[in-house]
Design a protein that fits this description.
By secondary structure, the chain is α+β, with helices and mostly antiparallel strands.
């Protein structure tokens, strides 16, 4: 890998910025000052220093974010705030993207990475990655509805969903609100809202709790994110 590409990927600025660092002799590779941006290095084995600080190479980055309501699941938007706007300057990278999407008013677990192959695997229908949601629903969800979810539903536009698991947590008769957990392996547009709409009910709150082996912990506040552990990264590969 060229030294200017390496340092640019490691957040030392644009290729032009890196060339300025090299021109002012601030870059050292294996104890020798770099004089050209074109030199090739081994990003894993070469010892690269900028102003005496060793630069550790990292190709992929993985974050678990607790998405708040009112934020778009997108990398950029000219008018509205996106999940990438929640990242601080140190952690933000142009190549980061959210894996899948959550509706603007949906909260919860969102995987952010620059690993395109992993993102594809996590979303591939052939992988059947479970996504678990907590929902508050206007209406009395019963065992009959559980059976309907288990066999798959026909949505109002005729789309047929794959079987899903519906678990009833509680029902408040005075407010006519049911609390449920739904597990799906698909990611159709507004899928859970449309599934409940197909049985005459309305989702008033939706939060993703799990995606595959990743789980949202209660200590991670809305709008905050953290780096995945090595064990978590290994579990989703």
């Amino acid at each position: 890998m060229r030294i200017d590409k390496f340092l640019s990927e490691m957040q030392f600025g644009t290729r032009s910025d890196v060339r300025k660092l090299i021109k002012t002799k601030q870059v050292v590779v294996d104890d020798e000052k770099v004089t050209s941006a074109k030199i090739q290095i081994n990003p894993v084995e070469s010892i690269v220093q900028v102003n005496g600080e060793v630069v550790q190479y990292q190709q992929y980055y993985y974050y678990l974010l607790n998405k708040p309501a009112g934020v778009l699941t997108a990398t950029k938007d000219k008018k509205q705030k996106t999940v990438m706007d929640l990242f601080n300057r140190v952690d933000y990278r142009d190549d980061l993207f959210p894996v899948g999407r959550l509706d603007k008013d949906t909260t919860g677990l969102l995987l952010i990475t620059n690993d395109g192959q992993l993102g594809h695997r996590m979303l591939s229908p052939t992988r059947h990655v479970d996504k678990v949601y907590f929902a508050k629903v206007e209406g009395h969800v019963t065992d009959v509805d559980v059976s309907k979810f288990e066999t798959g539903l026909s949505l109002k536009d005729g789309t047929r969903t794959k079987p899903a698991r519906l678990s009833i947590a509680s029902y408040q008769s005075d407010t006519n609100i049911s609390e449920v957990f739904v597990t799906i392996t698909e990611g159709k547009y507004h899928q859970i809202k449309r599934m409940f709409g197909a049985i005459g009910m309305k989702v008033i709150r939706l939060e993703r709790k799990k995606m595959g082996t990743l789980e949202l912990e209660q200590t991670l506040s809305l709008g905050r994110y953290r780096v995945l552990t090595d064990e978590e990264i290994e579990s989703i590969q």
